[in-house]
Amino acid sequence: AVKAYFESMDLDVWDAWSFFKLLDLDQRGDVEIEAFLMGCLRLRGQARSIDLCKLIHDQAWLLKQQSQFHVNCEKEFKKLRSEIRTLAGH
Q: Per residue in 23-34, is it b (16+ CB within 10 Å) or e — as a string?
């Protein structure tokens, strides 16, 4: 019955867990009925080009932010190593 419902809404839910995670926006482990219904409406049908472009853009932004974070961490680690060596008398 659930599968037929999803098919009637043009939703391809082959991976129930991934689908649930997409609907559980606040990551509390549950989905309220309104969020479920709105999520179903939002996720039905084929992905549009703008959806894919936004996904690619967001992914590129995240990768850039993560890279900057790693660079900053490495700089701070170098400072810490230097401070530790100084304190240790080396």
A: bbeeeeeebeee
13, exposed or middle or buried, with CB in 10 Å at 0-12, 13-18, 19+? Answer: middle
The model's pTM: 0.51
Give the CA radius of gyration of the chain: 22
User: Residue 20 burial by CB count (10 A; 0-12/13-18/19+): exposed, middle or buried?
Assistant: middle
Structure tokens at 89: 């008398």
Q: Is 38 helix (H, G, I), strand (E, B) or coil?
A: helix
Distance in angstroms (rounded) separating the CA atoms of residues 57 and 36: 26
What 3-state DSSP class applies to 11? coil
Q: What is the pLDDT of residue 13?
A: 67
Cα–Cα dist 7/29, whole Å: 24
